[in-house]
Amino acid sequence: MTRSDGGGRQGRAKALANRLDGRPVVLVGMMGAGKTTVGRRLANRLGRQFIDSDEEIERAAQMTIPEIFEQRGESEFRAGEMRVIARLLKEKDIVLATGGGAFVNLDTRALVKAEAVSVWLKADLDVLFERVSRRSNRPLLKTADPRGTLEKLIADRYPIYQEADVTVFSRDVPQDNVAADVIGALLDHLKTR
Ligand SMILES: Nc1ncnc2c1ncn2[C@@H]1O[C@H](COP(=O)(O)OP(=O)(O)OP(=O)(O)O)[C@@H](O)[C@H]1O
Ligand SMILES: O=C(O)C1=C[C@@H](O)[C@@H](O)[C@H](O)C1
Ligand SMILES: [Mg+2]
Questions:
Q1: Is 92 marked as binding a ligand?
Q2: How large is the ipTM?
Q3: Whose CA is nearest to atom 12 of ligand 1?
């Protein structure tokens, strides 16, 4: 990276941090889209705290997400997820990565829209499937045909994720580049408001 690239990126991050004025940035999208990994880099650039709602839920429940699904069921998980996100959105200056289903829940979505600026990290089926196949910690994909299940979730959820304030493609390029794209998209969005 050249010196001027670095200066430009830093300048954009600073401009965005000012423009956001404390408002949380919330990343939404499918499992494997890169919300956690890109979110950490984004927070770093903006000088903000990074929080992952899945990790907060596990901490609050003292259980892993697969255990919560197994022992309490998905609807209880969703209710807990909304409570945790409502609590986290009271914080200023955060980047919050949400679980893949959080924004799909009507109440959680309304909360995010009211309190934060939202970013949909979008990726196609092949990219997502390759990424989620690296780990087996996604209870919703424990089916006979995980690829088919992912495809169905994409069909159901993409029209909803589209309601986020901005959409950024989470391609197989370095995660820092995706974070830079998020900064660019948010600056454009906030300029036109
Ligand atoms: N731009 C990228 N290029 C290559 N690999 C990536 C990229 N972004 C994310 N990944 C990889 O994809 C996997 C999933 O990423 P990550 O855990 O950030 O997704 P997530 O959206 O937080 O998923 P979940 O909703 O399940 O928490 C990780 O192994 C991560 O390193
Ligand atoms: O897409 C989903 O519904 C989920 C994604 C994960 O982040 C976890 O929140 C959980 O496994 C459910
Ligand atoms: Mg994650």
A1: no
A2: 0.96
A3: 131
